[in-house]
Amino acid sequence: xxxxxxxLVWLIPLAAIVSWWLGRRSVxxxxxxxxxxxxxYFKGLNYLLNEQPDKAIEVFVKMIEVDSETVxxxxxxxxxxxxxxxxxxxxxxxxxxxxxxxxxxxxxxIALLELGIDxxxxxxxxxxxxxxxxxxxxxxxxxxxxxxxxxxxxxxxxWDNAIVTARRLEQxxxxxxxxxxxxxxxxxxxxxxxxGNIKSMKDNLQKALSIxxxxxxxxxxxxxxxxxxxxxxxxxxxxxxxxxxxxxLMPEVIQPLLTCYKEIDKKEEFIxxxxxxxxxxxxxxxxxxxxxxxxxxxxxxxxxxxxxxxxKKHPTVKGVDRLIExxxxxxxxxxxxxLVSIKELTARLIKDRSMYKCNNCGFDAKVLHWxxxxxxxxxxIKPVYGLEGE
Length: 390
Ligand SMILES: [Zn+2]
Prior knowledge:
It is a single chain. The protein is mainly alpha-helical. The chain folds into three domains: 3-173, Alpha Horseshoe (Serine Threonine Protein Phosphatase 5, Tetratricopeptide repeat), CATH 1.25.40.10; 266-352; 354-390. The protein is 72% helix and 2% strand. It has 19 helices and three strands. The chain has a three-stranded antiparallel sheet with strand order 2-1-3, with no helix packed on it. A hairpin with a 5-residue loop joins strand 1 and strand 2 (364-365). Helix 10 (178-194) packs antiparallel against helix 11 (198-211) and helix 11 (198-211) runs antiparallel to helix 12. Bound molecules: zinc ion (ZN).
């Protein structure tokens, strides 16, 4: 057994003996000390000494009489075990608590909520779901129960249930859930797309946008679909919509937009659009794509002048890296060797950096996730901006 686990196991006999002793003392103040110790305590201690902590815990937990004084102790212990990943023990403690008929309605509902969370941690989603629904029906802790139910449906990818639960959560908490409900519709849309049901995909995207007009993901799903099916003009319209929905995602759409404009043979129009984007947002992805187009049209010298001017306004490693690349094309001898060394450095800096970051928990990601894998928040992962990013 680990050292801190042992410590925790000893906490229970300590709590048991203190609570038992306090109970006895109030009855018989003057009895001799040794008679006060319960035989159950020795039984538990014996299990503990024989390294059978599970049996020991059972004995000790039963010893602590559940009354208004010790409910808190049980709840705290249950929580401690769960937080340490010992969910089976947490379940036993919470079940033992619920079985007591003396609990108040409030205490019982807290124990039910805790047991529900234990079940979730063990992956027993059906049991957890039943408990949370029981709580909601009883009108106790319904906001917390809706939140937990929502976690279950998200993990199980049951998006219809997630949508209904989020709406009920909105009603009982007064807190808006528009952005996450729109994400659930997008999840459904992606499922439909995979199943080849394009009409249903579009319906779900429409629902996402009607509940959250700023849902950039809905535009992106449909734009990507149109792009893959050669409908470039329509795709351009939707990719461009992302600018006003969530301009932080602009770097995501510049490359597909470039392809669309090339396909419809309107590169000049795209160059004008990119100039606008660069002057408004100055993101390096747009700057580099535009530099490439300038190089094609007016030569490398003009592209270098453009990047240098933009880098003064928005310095980034990626920009410097591209400048070195252009310089390398014309350099010779020792200058070339030095440039190669610097280029290796900038290339490594770019390669080692995560391209995306969660605004809520700081999680670093290599690809764009709509739900943060770490904190589970929706729409919080964005491209990294600043010197080492956009
Ligand atoms: Zn996060």
